[in-house]
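Input record (one chain):
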Amino acid sequence: MKKINLLILGLFLTSFSFAQSKYDGDGLPRFHDRPSAEEIEFAKQTNFVVSPMAPAPPPSGELRPVAEFEPAEAVLIRYPFHIPMLLIQKLAEEINVITIVANPSEKTTVTNQYLSNGIDTSKCSFLIAPTNSEWTRDYGPWFMAIDDEKVGMFDFTYNRAKYPYNRYNDNAINGHLATSLSMEIYTSSYYLTGGNYMNDGTSQAASSVQQFYEDNPGVTIPTFRAHFLEYLGIEQYHFPDDALGQYINHIDCWAKYLGPNKIMIGEVPPGHPRYQAYEDAVTYFASQTSPWGMPMQVYRVYTPGGSGTKTTPYTNSLILNDRVFVPQTGNQYDEDAMDAYRNAMPGYKVIGINYNDWLNTDALHCRTHEIADRGMLYIKHLPLFGEQSTTDTYTIYADISPYSGEALVEDSLLVYYKIGNAGEWQTRPMTHVAGKKWRGDISCVPEESDVSYYIFAKDESGRRECHPYIGAPDPHRFHAQPTTPNPAIAVSETEFEVAGLNNVDLTFEFAISNGGCGDLTYELSEGDPPAKNGFLLTFEPQSGAVSSGSSQTISVTVHSKDLPAGSYNTSILIASNDPVSDEPELPVLVTIYNGIVVPDTVYVVQNKTNPAFFTISCDYNTDVVIEAIDFAYGDPFEGTVTPADGATFPVTISPSQEITFKAEYTGGEDAGNKILYSTYTVISDVISRDMVIVFIPDGVGIDEQRIDKQSVVVFPNPANNSVSFVYSTAEPTSAVISIYDITGKPVKQISHESSTSGAQTVTWNFENETMLNGMYFYSIRLNEQIVNGKLLIMR
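The corresponding structure, as predicted from the sequence alone:
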C-alpha cells in the first residue's frame, strides 16, 4: 500500500508544471516539498529510519516564544547556498552571518567567495557540520525566552528526516548550533518544520493544520497546544486550513506575522481556485484579538501566482531587525509587493532580492533563519489604543528586561509622545515601580486629541530598543477624551533640618512643582505660632502660581534673633488649589548654636593679686578660633583678659571643649569704693560675643552713705531686649527698680530681695513687652538710698 501511495503521489506531482527544481546535497537530489526518487530508493536500500527525538524536560520558569521580528544577533544559511550572493552581502551589512559548511575545505571555499564579492568577513562565522539540504528555516531552531532573562533553544525531529526522507544530518544541526552558541536546548519528540511555524513574540502562534496531522498521526490539537504551552509559552495556537492548498502545507508560503498585532496574508484574484481559501484565512485572523488586546490588523500582498507557479512568493520574506528582505522574480507585481510591506511596516528598510530560483513554495524565508539575540533588551508593554477615558494623566507601564545582564541606563528610559500628526515629539522620563516594572506619564493632553507614543530604553551593553520595535515611524496610538485640567502639586522635600548661630538668619530652599495640567496657585505660612518657638519663618515668594510642567523655587529664612541655643520644631504649611492633594505640611527642625559660650558677667576684686577665672566653650559643630578679647566700651584702662595658661591669641576651641581665661584689675588705687565695669568683645571667626567685667572694691562692702551713681552699673545701655542693673551692698538689701517714660509715667517696677551681701545683678527682659524706642528714666531705691539715671532703648 505504501508503494502505491508513493507512486500516485509521484504521478500527481509530475503532472504540474510547477514541479520544483532539484538541489544537490550529499549526492542525492532533494526537493523542498516531497522526497526525490533517489531519497526513496536510498531509504529502501538502507532501511534507515530516523526515530523521533527523545523529549527533554521543558524549561523551568515563565516562557514566551521569541518572534522573527524581535532583535536578532545572526542569520543562519547553508553552503551550497541556493540563495544569491546579493542577499548574503545585504545580510552581512546588518548582522553576523553563520554559514553551515561540511568541512574546513568548504569553509575556505566560502571565505574566498565572500572576499571576492566584497563581503565583510568579520561579520561572518561558520558552523562545520554535515547537512542534507539548504532549508535552514525548516530544520533550524525555534527560540523561547525564559523568565525574560535569557533565550533558550527548542529542537524537534525534522519532518523531512522522517522515513522516507532520511535527512538525518539536517535533523542534527540544532544540536551542533546549540553547542556552538553555548545555549540551553530543549527537545521535542514531535515531527515539525519551521516553514509551518510563526509566532507573535508574546503568546500566540500559527501553523497550517494539515501538516501537523500528516506528520504526527493520532496526536490531537489539544495535545499539541498543551505541549507548546509547556515548552514555548504559547498560550493560543492557531491551526487554520492551508490557504495555498499545496502538498507542502507551510504557512510561510501564504501568511506572515509582522508584529504582535499585524499579519500579512497573500491575495489572489477572485477567479483563482484558492481565492475563497485565502479570504477565509483573512476572515479568521481579522476576527482574532492580538495579545495587546486590540483586533489583529490584516495586511494583504498581491500574489496572483498563488496556485503554485514560480512568480510571486512575497510572504516568504525575512524580517531581520529593522530590515525586510522580500523575494523578487522580475514579476510585474514586485514593486507592488514592496509597497505592501512599506505600508504595513513603516520605518523598516524594505529590500528586494531578485533571484531566478525563487519558487512560490520555496523562497527567501525557507533558506534563511534568524538567530535570536541572546542579550536582547526586551520591553513588555500592553499598549493604550482606541478611545481612552477622561484623565489628566495616561500612565504607560512597561517591564524592561536586559537579557545581557547589564544595568539599564535609567536616564535613557523614556516615553516619547506627540499630540496629533503634526505635533512635535516630547519625552517623559520613566520611573522605577518595582522589579522590572517602570512607568511613564503622558499628561495634559488637549481635549479630543490623537496621541502617538512609543517607549525607548537603553542598557549598559549599548543596546537601544523601542516598543513598538520600530519606534517613531509606527508608534502606538490612542484617542484622548475631553479632560478638565487640574493642577497637581509636588514638593521637592518632605522635611528640613537647618542649623546656625543665634541672631544670624538661616536660609534654605525647596521647590514647588506642578505635575498637573491646570495652573497651580499656592500660599505659604508657618505651621506653629512664631511666639511659641521664638523665631519666625518668612518666604520669598510667599505666594504665587506655577504653570503646568513648571516649578518655583522657594527661599525660606529663619529669623532667630536672641534665641537661646537649642533645638526648635516648626513647620511650613502650603495651601494650594490642587483638588486632590491634602495641604502639605513640611516639618522644620531648627538647631541654634551660640558658637562660643561666654559668661554674661565676670566679677573681679579691685586687687591685682586676685584675678578672676572664667571659661569660654564651643557649642558649634566645628572648631572656633578666638582671635582676641578686646575692649568694647566703658573704661578701657581698668583690666586685662588673657588665656589662663599663658598662651597668646588666637586660641582654637574644639566642639564641647572649654578654655580658661583670667581677668585682672589694672585700674590702680584711685578707684576707691566705686563699682567699675568694662565691656569686652570676644572676637571669633564664627561670631563675636560681648561680656561685662565688673570690678568690685576690695573689702567687706560699700559704705552706705557713699552710694551714688557710680555705685550702680547699667548695661547694656542702649538696651535692645534686656538690661541688667548691678550694685553691691554690705548687707542683705531690699531694692526696688522703677522705670519711667519721658513723660514721667511709670512703665515697669521690679522688686529684688538679696539674702546675702556683696554684688547683686537684677536683669529685666522686655523682649515680649511693648516698649517703644526712646529715652527712659530709672530710679533704684536701695534701702533708704536712691540712685537715678537714664536708659536708652533701641530695638
